[in-house]
Every structure is written in structure tokens, then in C-alpha cells.
Amino acid sequence: MILGYARADGRLGIRNHLLCVHTVECSSFVTQQIAATNNRVHAMGFAGCYGNEYAARMMVALGSHPNVGGVLLVSLGCEGTDAGALAGAIRRSGRPVEVLRIQEQGGTEPTIRRGRELVAGMLEDLERVPRLPMTMAGLVIGAECGGSDATSGISANPAVGRASDLIVDAAGTAIIEETLEMLGCQEIIAARGANPKAAEDLRAAVEKAETFSLQVDQFSIAPGNQAGGLTTIEEKSMGAFAKSGTRPIQGVIKVAEQPPHKGLWVLDTVPDRSPFGFGYSNPNDSEGILDLISCGAHIVVFTTGRGSVIGSVISPVLKVCGNPKTYARMSGNMDVNAGRIIAEGATLDEVGREIFDLIAATASGQPTKAELLGHREYFIPYKSQDLCVNA
Predict the structure, then answer these.
(1) What is the pLDDT of residues 81-128, one digit of tens each?
(2) Entry pTM
(3) β-strand 2-6 against 12-13: which pairing, if any?
(4) What are the C-alpha distances in Å from 389 to residues 89, 215, 257, 274, 359?
């Protein structure tokens, strides 16, 4: 049985973390020192000095995530990001929130001391969070791929697709992103739309991603992908889209937006305005995972062929390896050997069920390899505000 952590906003979490957030790079060291005292405290934040609506909405969404029980915001005191406003927005979700400003506290050491005092008290409060029974229907699962090769589209990704079908069939919620890796699949994706509006939005999201890629003259295919046997972005796209499974797609959501209802959704991370705006480029795996978490993903299932060691803050990252040789070489980082489909004759349904069962075990408290190793990569860049707003 899954026992979720009850939050004041009515959602249930599968982890009970305390988030320690720096609101500018100048306060990141102090934040890390405060968080270092306990592995349930996750340090993260935004490096920029100038205010950015995308980053602010991300930090509010992450601070209000069901896996988070409380938040400590650490500000230098003169940056553009308004720590007080962030605290107020997170507090409205029912989480306890504290704010420290280094300039007011008197520098590094006094702030670290005070921060550790606050963290100790907040952790005691987290111990009293009630636990309630939770089913698979209450879970939100994100899917991401990175370090893909020619095995990804025939083993790991379609196996995750089978697991996605099982999640949706259990009345849960699944989210896939990476419209930059769905180029050429517009009509295939639109045909999966649950209704005409969903089909229209899906087609538009992929076409926008293609326009962006053409404008910046950069497609989401790396030298490692090509060395692993992927020859074109369209070929990579077909494999990446296989993570979606076969169920109808309910529509498109934006970064930091919660799915309006259960089912399968596509996350659009590409700005609606000119891609030449300040600070935006093609995303990386850490950013993609965090975008999914900002939409409420309790767990992110991450597929790879060439290998990855990535984890994240807040939500467990469960890694599925599609290449049997990579799994043998990097088994300490991998949770599922989908390479058995290629090397041992396992079926997609068998491995899909294994992934589904491991999602349930992770939700019940079993740590992923990335959690055991302490991987907590994250990235919040500057982006335009429209990423978080659906017109």
C-alpha cells in the first residue's frame, strides 16, 4: 500500500522533503551549507539576479509540490527576485515557509546558523505530517529521455509507453514532454488527440518546436545520439514519442501548470514568442526533468541508451536503460534493464509491467538508484513568461 503525505491543498506526496531555495546565485553557497545537515533537505534555486517570471513561477510550483512539506527561502537581499512574494505564494498552498536575507542576518555564518535552526524545527514539523492511503490513481508520472541511441526507440521508450498505458488505465496521470524531439510526428500525435481541440493544440505545439529549431539552427540531436546510431531528428522523434504509449492524449500543458484532469498529457516547454529572447536555448535533461516536476510529477521515468547518471531534487528519477551493453557497464545507475527486450527476448509488455511495478514500489518509499547515490541535479534558466501561461 502507498501511504501518501497529506498536504493542506488536498494533494498527497510520496516523499516528505524540506526545500531550501536560493533566490540568487549569491546565496547558493549559504543555502547548500544550511541543507547539508540532513539528506531530507534539498538545496536548489535560481542563479539569476534580475527578476524572471518563469523562474518565479517555477520556484512557487516546486515549493508547492506534493513531495515538499516546507520551504526555506534564502535571499542575499538585493536581487530582483522577490523572496517575500515567493513565500506568500507558496504559503497559500498551506506549506510552512521561512525567509532569510543574508544582508539582514549579518553575513554567511550568522545566516547558516539561523538557517540550520529553522531547518531543525521545520523537520520536526514534517514528522507530524499525517499519512493517508494512496492508489496509483493519485500519482502523476513524468517521462523523459536522454543519452538516446538506436536501442531507445525499440526497447526502453516503448516499454515506458506500455507502463504509461497502465498508469492511465489505473486512472492515474502521465506527462511526456520534449516536443523538440517530436518533429515530423505532428500528424501522428494529433491523431491521438482526445478531442479536436487537443489535436489542434498538439499539432501547433510540435510545429512551434520545429519553427524554433529552424530559427536557432539547432535540432535536439547530439553527437552522442548519432554515434549511437540515430541518423536524423525524425528518427529520434519517433523513438522519443514511443514513451507516450497508445492512449488518447488529453491536451497540452505549459511549464508549472498542473494537468486539469487525469490521463495522458504533453508538456510544451518552447516559448510562444521569438526564441531569440534572453537566456533561452535548447533544453537539457536536468531542465526537462524539473519542468515535469513543476507540473506535479511525483516520479520521473528517464530512459537512456548510451547511459546517464542524472537524478533531481524533489521527485525520484527512475532510469530505464534500453541498451544491454550500457546496462552491464552502468548497472549501478540503472533501475530497469529494458535491454532484455533486445538481448534476452523479454516482451515490451513484460518490461512495461516491471516499470509499472517499480513506480508503485518507488511511490511506497523504495529509493531509486539516483536517490541512493545522492544525485540531485536541477536547472532553472531565464525564460519568457509565456511558457507558464496558456492563452
Answers:
(1) 999 999 999 999 999 999 999 999 999 999 999 999 999 999 999 999
(2) 0.94
(3) antiparallel
(4) 17, 22, 8, 16, 30
